[in-house]
Amino acid sequence: MTRDRIGFTTGIVHADRLAGVEHGGVHQAIHTSAQFGFERVEDLIGVFQGTVKGSFNYARQGTPTTAALEAKITQLEQGCDTVCFATGMGALAAVFLTLLKAGDHLVSSRFVFGNTTSLFGTLRDLGIEITLVDPSSVGAVAAVVRPNTRMVFVETIANPGTQIPDLPGIGALCRQAGLLYVVDNTVTSPALFVPRRVGASLVVNSLSKTLGGHGAALGGAVTDTGEFDWQDYPNIFRNYRRGDPAYWGLQQIRKKALRDMGASLSSEQAHQISLGTETLALRVNRSSATALELARFLRSHPATSAVHYPGLEEHPQFDLAREWFGAGSWLLSFDLRDVHALTGVIDALRIPIKATGLGDTRTLIIPVAPTIFWEAGPEVRRDMDIADGMIRISVGLEESSDLLQDFEQALRLA
Ligand SMILES: *Cc1c(COP(=O)(O)O)cnc(C)c1O
Questions:
Q1: pLDDT value at position 4?
Q2: Atom of ligand 1 nearest to the CA of 92
């Protein structure tokens, strides 16, 4: 079976057995060994010198269980290799800290995950220059590129406002300018979008969200799409300019971030996430369909002043979302007209869980300004179009009729 001839879910549910499994198990085993021994010392020496490939040494740098998950994500993202981390933030920190250095310039969407914005503060203190732009127009990105620009970073669908960058336009710009194009695919996931198709160089996924999908495990991943020529990238250390250039970038990320910084994914968590990926497309299709119904209901309700959802015709990037994602995803947000009703409405809901997470089997809800964007302050909130009455919903797998009824009764309080 080759991956271009089989469907997404066919591929994922059979992926574990492709590399061979012990005792005919249908899943990869959970390998909890912290170290791995060798029959011959030459092999141990070879692992350190990079001449023996595919062997495990010390679990900080991977186990057979994390490697099986990496292979699965590589397949989903149609890439050439993946490195997993303990969390999505671990994966993002790895990309920025191992591929950028003082004096480099990073162009990023200004609509990014709150903790990523906070991480940018750390990068600035380390001497990395960062310019934030509205990436819905490629012109805004092109206008700020300078000789020391190394990387462009965007998220596919921004949380909580659901802004979408000009993903193909930025891909073309990066290719022409020789820039690394890093796409955080967490909200769309490879079930809706494969960033390699728009020329992304690296894809980051938080596995804690829809990929794992059950709110039961944390993880993150960086996938190399094979689209970028690492021979042109000035920040690859001499030690990692060895072997096939296609692997230089992830080789450096694996050594400098996973080995030296140690945000390693455990085998138990990798197994949980791996099970979750088997139903990824089923869950994303179901929750996206419900999210569209809910978005349409909220739009027509007099208590709301705006609904942010890429599946609605009035969304500024509706056409792009339809062409590239085929759906609007499970993430939506809306603004209550009356800010004073914010807590009353949310407390009146019986089904959604009041929680900060995303991409769960259960619907999760949170008021944005007083929680996840509280620390950012009013100026950042204004820049990111976050209204005081904004409510974010991560739609789960409940029957849509139950959710609609619940919102209908709760919004009577607004
Ligand atoms: C949650 C999230 C992250 C961080 O992932 P964790 O696994 O929680 O560390 C990064 N990017 C986006 C878009 C996210 O939603």
A1: 58
A2: 10
Q: Regarding beta strands 129-133 and 149-155, do their DSSP bridges make them parallel or antiparallel, or are they unpaired?
A: unpaired
Last residue of a domain, one of 277, 304, 335: 277
Position 68 in a domain: yes
pTM equals 0.96
Q: What pLDDT was estimated at residue 364?
A: 98
Q: Is the CB of 358 under 6 A from ligand 1?
A: yes
Domain count, the chain: 2
Do the Cβ atoms of 203 and 83 come closer than 8 Å?
Answer: no
Contact between residue 333 and residue 391 where contact means Cβ atoms under 8 Å apart: yes
Q: Whose CA is nearest to atom 2 of ligand 1?
A: 206
Same domain, 206 and 292: no
In this predicted structure, what is the pLDDT of residue 197? 98
Residues 323 and 299 in one domain: yes
What pLDDT shows up at residue 1?
43
**Which of the listed residues 214, 244, 277 is the one where a domain comes to its end?**
277
Q: Tell me, using a 6 A CB cutoff, whether residue 136 lines ligand 1.
A: no
Q: How far is it, in rounded angstroms, from Cα 351 to Cα 172?
A: 44
The per-residue pLDDT for 222 is: 98
Residue 34 domain-assigned? Answer: no
Cα gap 202→222, rounded to integer Å: 7
pLDDT recorded at residue 91: 98
Please indicate, yes or no, whether residues 240 and 323 belong to a single structural domain of this protein.
Answer: no
Closest atom of ligand 1 to 186 CA is 13
- CA-closest residue to ligand 1 atom 7: 88
* Ligand 1 binding pocket includes 215 (Cβ within 6 Å): no
Reported as a single tens digit per residue, the pLDDT across 41-70 is 999 998 888 788 778 999 999 999 999 999
**Pairing state of beta strands 149-155 and 105-109?**
parallel
